[in-house]
Amino acid sequence: MKLKLVVIGNGMAGMRTVDELIQTAPDRYDITVFGAEPHGNYNRIMLTPVLFGAKSIADIMIHDFDWYLKNRVTLHCGPDKAVVNVDREHRCVIAQDGTCAFYDKLLIATGSLPLMLDIPGRDVEGVLGFRDIADVETMIEKAASKRHAVILGGGLLGLEAANGLLQRGMQVSVINRADHLLNRQLDRKAAAFLQRQLADKGIRFHLGTTIQRIDSRDRHISAVELSDGSALPADMLIMSTGIKPNISLAKRIGLECQHGIVVDDSMRSSDSAIYSVGECVQHRGELFGLVAPVYEQAKVCAQQLSGQADSQFKTLSSATMLKVTGIDLFSVGNFEGDSDCQILQLIDHELGVYKKIVLRGNIVVGVILYGDTSDSAWYLNLVKDKTPIAAIRDRLMFGQTPLANAA
């Protein structure tokens, strides 16, 4: 008789685990999935092209409803199917509408929530995050009749939202508390390149400031007041100031949680029958917001669920490969450097290319590539493997190709 696997969360992490499990042990489990959105599993990263108008919702589906039927996966989805409790003693999952499902193994993949800052006046229409299909549909609908969009947060998602709404004809202002964009991924010079290119498109920037109050008219946002004393008209405010692991259910049912659901190297929680993967987990003190490590977690979890007990999750090297509004960016390691470091730089304003290599002795410890990321994999390996570069130091800036020619 098949074991019962229940998955809470119909997103990219949980469903990647199901995908892997169907390939490694297709006959081991009867699988039931609960999701709070009224859709199949979709590629959240591709919400930006939907906002631009370059893709439809159907285009970004990873698993449409037919897939669940074909693979005999039971799907309960929609707001009334959100899981509200887990009876760990009787191993039963309970949804908001009373739907129950018993499990032998449970996988919690509840993902993350957008950080919605507690700004005075925020509880009005037109203030939203940029996290799911419903958010994007609201943005598209408002962009058709409204004029002024304000984005709070100069990170990747905030800039993507800004560019998408600009392309839909809105006047867009980005507000960022830090004094340069993508401050976790770029240094000031690379950020200045990016800001210049986006400003040339028509996006306005207010850096080193934040929103201290939201004004409204008839319960709809009308303006924002900034901490520098200025005010901006606003028909829409997108809060894009980060994410936090969605662990409220895990806490309620008594699993060990710190910032995320605490898991071991086999992706098991403090309850041996319950696994967890994705942006909701904390592994060896670390949280996760990028696809690569989350998919690696899914693979390990699927192997564990299929009986391969030796499979372990190890955190990958945290390189960031981004495409912001068509501009390629890459950063890895200690790209700011310190007093012990030497810095090699190449700046080409005409081509819009910036390269920075940070060396400690003969080891590359950090890299930023802006505008040309063709050698990113090679640089990543130099950092990861701590490869001595004394013999190629004078050619290091030009990437892998001259090196291959010289060999």
Write up what this structure looks like.
- With about 400 residues, the chain is of the alpha/beta class.
- The protein has three domains: about 5-115 and about 245-305, 3-Layer(bba) Sandwich (FAD/NAD(P)-binding domain); about 125-240, FAD/NAD(P)-binding domain (3-Layer(bba) Sandwich), CATH 3.50.50; about 320-405, FAD/NAD-linked reductase, C-terminal dimerisation domain (Enolase-like, domain 1, 2-Layer Sandwich), CATH 3.30.390.
- The protein has helices at about 10-25, 45-50, 65-70, 135-145, 155-165, 190-200, 250, 290-305, 375-385, 400-405; strands spanning about 5-10, 30-35, 40, 60-65, 75, 85, 90-95, 100, 105-110, 110-115, 125-130, 150, 170-175, 205, 210-215, 220-225, 230-235, 235-240, 245, 260-265, 275, 280-285, 320-325, 325-335, 340-350, 355-360, 365-370.
- It has a five-stranded parallel beta sheet.
Descriptive keywords:
single chain; 407 residues; alpha/beta; FAD/NAD(P)-binding domain; Enolase-like, domain 1; 3 domains; five-stranded parallel sheet; 10 helices; 27 strands; globular; FAD/NAD-linked_Rdtase_dimer_sf
What is this structure, in a nutshell?
This protein has 407 residues and is of the alpha/beta class. It contains ten helices and 27 strands.
- Count the strands? 27
User: How much beta, percentage-wise?
Assistant: 25-35%
CATH architecture of the largest domain: 3-Layer(bba) Sandwich
> How many domain units?
3
Low-confidence stretches: 403-407
User: Can you say what the CATH homologous superfamily of the largest domain is?
Assistant: FAD/NAD(P)-binding domain
CATH fold-level topology of the largest domain = FAD/NAD(P)-binding domain
Shape descriptor: globular
Instruction: Report the radius of gyration as a whole number of Å.
Output: 23 Å
Structural class, judged by helices and strands? alpha/beta
| Main β-sheet, spatial strand arrangement | 5-2-1-9-21
How many angstroms separate the termini? 60 Å
Q: Main sheet?
A: 5 strands, parallel
**CATH class group of the largest domain:** Alpha Beta
Count the DSSP helices: 10
Calculate the mean pLDDT score and round it: 94
Percent range for helical residues? 10-25%
Protein name: Nitrite reductase
Keywords: FAD, Flavoprotein
Pfam families: Pyr_redox_2, Rubredoxin_C
Domain FAD/NAD(P)-binding: 4-300
